[in-house]
Amino acid sequence: MRTIPIPYHTGSLLLHVEEERLAAVITARTHDFQPGRSEPDIIEQALQNPIASRPLRELAAGKRDVVLVTSDHTRAMPSRLTLPALLREIRLGSPGARITILIATGLHRKTTEAEQRRMFGDDIVDHERIVVSDAFCPDDFTDMGTLPSGASFFVHRLAAQCDLLVAEGFIEPHFFAGFSGGRKSILPGICSAETVNENHSFRAVASPFAQAGVLDENPIHQDMIEAARRVNLQFIFNVALGGGKEIIAAFAGHFERAHEAGVEFVRSLAQCPRTEGDIVVTSNGGYPLDQNLYQSVKAVSTAAACCRDGGVIVMCCGCADGMGGVHFERLMTMGTPLEIERYLSGIPPRESIPEQWNVQVYARALKNHQVILVSDRLPPEKIRAANMIPARTPDEALAAARRLVGEKARVVVIPDGVAVVVAQ
Prior knowledge:
The protein is of the alpha/beta class. It is 35% helix and 26% strand. The chain has helices spanning 39-48, 56-60, 79-93, 113-120, 122-127, 157-161, 193-199, 202-205, 219-230, 257-270, 293-306, 326-332, 337-345, 356-368, 380-385, 394-405, and strands spanning 2-8, 11-17, 22-25, 65-71, 98-104, 129-132, 141-146, 152-156, 164-170, 173-174, 178-179, 233-241, 247-253, 271-273, 277-283, 307-316, 370-374, 389-391, 411-414, 421-423. α11 runs parallel beside α14 and α12 packs parallel to α14. The longest helix has 15 residues, at 79-93.
């Protein structure tokens, strides 16, 4: 019998699988990577050796109005370590610069002060100017034309009007943008709801190139790149994270070239060969990414890549923040997966509904697989309404899955489904 810890909320749950039934345990090598340097050393080396760019302090010289875009409460960005270093570099170049930390929320709810203190530390919250982007406040955004897909481009005024735009983030596989990080701080990070909705339209997400690990010909990525170019994102600082959310590598400099270097590093550790299972057990890597059902589709899409048609996916998700947004919950519970997909496919890009893209990917998975959700925070009736089967523990879910596909089912376990790219 193998005991496998599955990340869940701020801890883990234990799964027990007989060795003879265990087809594979798939983990990204980022979880075991040993950088051989401390996190502060990794940060400093990246800042002092920027890729295809002058150092940040030189870019900041003479600049009076600087905007520094950072991640929101749904991301594990280690800003307590990175923000002080970036602020220091900017002020070394321009001691009198007016710096605004702009929190990129996309369409997420606004980050609270308590969350900011947890993410950034009290000193930054108490002494720096912090603005939380609100995609639903039209007056905060300026029109910058259209993107390659034809989507309208409205970006936060602070970013469009500053003298120097800098962004920090982290790079991991993303289920339809290919990878996070880089240009994604701008779109969807600090764009209006209208722009985000169009970028994430049914047509865009349905593209065969809109999947984890794919950037070439990915229409969502192409719009994101153009948005970052047009708003003149001059410098990024992106990190790669290990299994404990610690920094294992950092990439600074030109927003495209530095991001490309980071993507290749992450890809080299995250890409794993496909092993097919009758049952695939996974998680969203624990908190903060498993704080609601909306976010957990990322790991479900990874599991679907390894699950045979008609097989069962077991998803472990804390859901401390419930289902997610009101649009997501309404769409997830409006009918069968096929009915949901038909409804979403009829929505024109300019009329896209907030959060429909995650519902779209869920519907795609649920058409081919039954999904058992392990959560002690979502009521069973809500789970069933979302076309899923509730369970309290991974072992209970595994037993239920076996009743559906047979006691001799081959089991594949992907403890952190967000960190893995399945090679097709």
